[in-house]
């Protein structure tokens, strides 16, 4: 029997999943698959993945949770990875779908108590009690056909939820085709070819000396989505930003596109979509244009909103949209076109800091020490792909590097580095936060965050397997003690930045007191100090405590008052 492409990709992905499972001691392939997905689709780092994943019994059908308080958004996900390749042609069972739906309601509704024993789920529910969330997403992620037979049922449940709560809810389906696209994106440069059916398409401006052609026309919304449907995960390869969930602008786009009285005005309300490609071949007779090595470089918000509307069966047939196509093979010009097209609308403040003179100087200083600071998103990979050789042992992402630096060095704003890192890039704070930055400080904070990340991973391995003794050996306790006291260490699920800041302050205080201890010993002292302070709370909400300014201030104050080494109260 011939092997299908799905079975072939299943075999490739299975080896990746197995490696992740072994490295992290996950109990199931589906949770290891969740790790892979969160890393490669949502671009989460190790600690963000650890914070998001729910594993173990009583998870209510929810395998990961992302709370984005900046955008007032909550995303929950269910993952299914078949136990054998023959099952890639199946669907997610109705019982599993309803389990996740009920779990979603249990998570967000105060009147529905959680009576299970999964502490991670309980922590998320407690965290949401104090979070202002107006936009909800449920994503079913599976390496099979996903959800087909039960979509109408989910549509009814979704409509009922929206009527009852007045909140936005999106249900997305990332099936085996979506997963293959994500996998391929990791292993290839852009080679997407699409065939776009249009209502009207005319040759437009061209520059022969630069070998640039262009077309302008308009396309039916459903035809547009159909043309990119199988490439939705990779069609934005060259776009500098992706879909912004919870955006009021996107909500407005969706309202117009799904309305009964305004859909025919969509063309006039919207700026349209811009494709960039290596080659465009137009067929006027069939009203189709073929694009080779295509990418959407402007209009990601619009196209993703239309795609979601089609997925939910809501897109109005009357929606038409302006489409521009730029055919160009000069990748340096492609990059500039992408940059300029995306600079004409508001962008995140973190993009502006990349051009600050201090950051430019910092990039040079770091490169001299073997670190490449990415001032522009994906700059390192882009440079390497197109001939620029950069000698470096580490690539540092600007946002995360700045987060670690502030969390480590700037006590005043350390809590912001955890609870709202986007606010770190507020222009009113930029000069103050950058005032003392230098390459050595950045490297120290980055290295220490990496070390603390490893320690938190040891903790999570124990939570997944109580026979694993790596964490107990590291903090110097018995397995029995750890088993009896592990609930008081739950702050470590979200404690990366508070432990980072605690380490720095302890290190400095021990130096002042001439206490000679190792790096690992300081980390362990920090863990026990935080544990003791949080234990003063009755029924503590660890997620809130680990990002609270008062928690950071309390710990900083207690460290300043130390006259000797932290005492472990075992």
Question: In summary, what is this structure?
Answer:
The chain is α/β, with parallel strands linked by helices. Helices cover 48% and strands 14% of the residues. It contains 25 helices and 14 strands.
Weakly predicted, low-confidence segments: none
Largest sheet: 5 strands, mixed
Strand arrangement across the biggest beta sheet: 6-7-12-8-11
Sum up the overall morphology in one term: globular
Radius of gyration: 25 Å
* Oligomeric grouping of the chains: single chain
Rounded mean pLDDT is: 87
The tally of strands reads 14
> In what range is the share of β-strand residues?
5-15%
Q: Which structural category do the helix and sheet elements fall into?
A: alpha/beta
Number of helices: 25
Distance between the termini: 62 Å
Residues in helices, as a percent range = 40-55%
């Amino acid at each position: 029997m011939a092997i299908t492409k799905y079975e072939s990709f299943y075999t490739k992905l299975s080896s990746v999943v197995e490696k992740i499972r072994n490295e992290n001691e996950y109990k199931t392939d589906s949770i290891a698959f969740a790790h892979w997905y969160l890393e490669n689709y949502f671009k989460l780092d190790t600690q963000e993945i650890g914070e998001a994943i729910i594993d173990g019994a009583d998870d209510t059908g929810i395998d990961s949770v992302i709370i984005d308080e900046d955008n007032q958004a909550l995303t929950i996900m269910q993952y299914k990875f078949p136990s054998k390749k023959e099952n890639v042609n199946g669907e997610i069972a109705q019982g599993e779908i309803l389990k996740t739906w009920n779990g979603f309601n249990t998570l967000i509704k105060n009147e529905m108590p959680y009576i299970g024993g999964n502490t991670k789920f309980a922590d998320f529910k407690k965290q949401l009690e104090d979070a202002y969330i107006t936009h909800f997403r449920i994503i079913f992620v599976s390496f099979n056909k996903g959800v087909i037979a039960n979509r109408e049922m989910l549509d009814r449940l979704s409509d009922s939820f929206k009527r009852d709560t007045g909140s936005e809810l999106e249900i997305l389906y990332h099936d085996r085709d979506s997963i293959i696209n994500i996998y391929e994106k990791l292993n290839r440069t852009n080679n997407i070819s699409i065939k776009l059916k249009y209502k009207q398409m005319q040759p437009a401006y061209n520059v022969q000396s630069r070998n640039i052609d262009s077309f302008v026309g308009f396309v039916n919304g459903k035809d547009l989505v159909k043309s990119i449907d199988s490439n939705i995960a990779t069609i934005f390869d060259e776009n500098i930003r992706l879909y912004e969930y919870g955006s009021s602008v996107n909500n407005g786009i969706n309202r117009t596109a799904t309305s009964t009285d305004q859909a025919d005005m969509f063309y006039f309300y919207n700026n349209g979509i811009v494709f960039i490609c290596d080659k465009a071949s137009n067929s006027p007779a069939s009203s189709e244009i073929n694009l080779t090595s295509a990418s959407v470089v402007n209009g990601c918000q619009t196209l993703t909103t239309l795609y979601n509307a089609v997925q939910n069966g809501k897109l109005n047939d009357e929606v038409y949209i302006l489409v521009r196509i730029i055919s160009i093979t000069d990748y340096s010009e492609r990059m500039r076109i992408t940059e300029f097209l995306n600079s004409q609308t508001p962008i995140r403040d973190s993009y502006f800091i990349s051009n600050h003179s201090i950051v430019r100087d910092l990039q040079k200083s770091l490169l001299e020490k073997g670190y490449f600071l990415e001032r522009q998103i994906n700059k390192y990979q882009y440079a390497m792909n197109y001939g620029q050789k950069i000698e470096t042992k580490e690539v540092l992402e600007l946002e995360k590097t700045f987060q670690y630096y502030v969390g480590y060095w700037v006590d005043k704003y350390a809590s912001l580095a955890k609870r709202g890192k986007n606010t770190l890039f507020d222009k009113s704070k930029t000069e103050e936060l950058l005032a003392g930055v230098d390459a050595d400080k950045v490297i120290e904070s980055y290295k220490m965050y990496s070390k603390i990340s490893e320690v938190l991973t040891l903790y999570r391995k124990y939570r997944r397997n109580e026979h694993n003794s790596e964490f107990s050996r590291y903090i110097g306790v018995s397995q029995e003690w750890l088993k009896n006291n592990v609930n008081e260490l739950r702050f470590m699920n979200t404690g990366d930045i508070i432990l980072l800041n605690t380490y720095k302050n302890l290190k400095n205080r021990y130096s002042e007191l001439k206490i000679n201890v190792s790096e690992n010993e300081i980390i362990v002292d920090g863990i026990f100090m935080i544990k003791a302070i949080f234990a003063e709370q009755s029924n503590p909400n660890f997620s809130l405590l680990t990002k609270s300014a008062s928690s950071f201030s309390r710990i900083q104050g207690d460290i300043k008052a130390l006259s000797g080494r932290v005492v472990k109260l075992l």
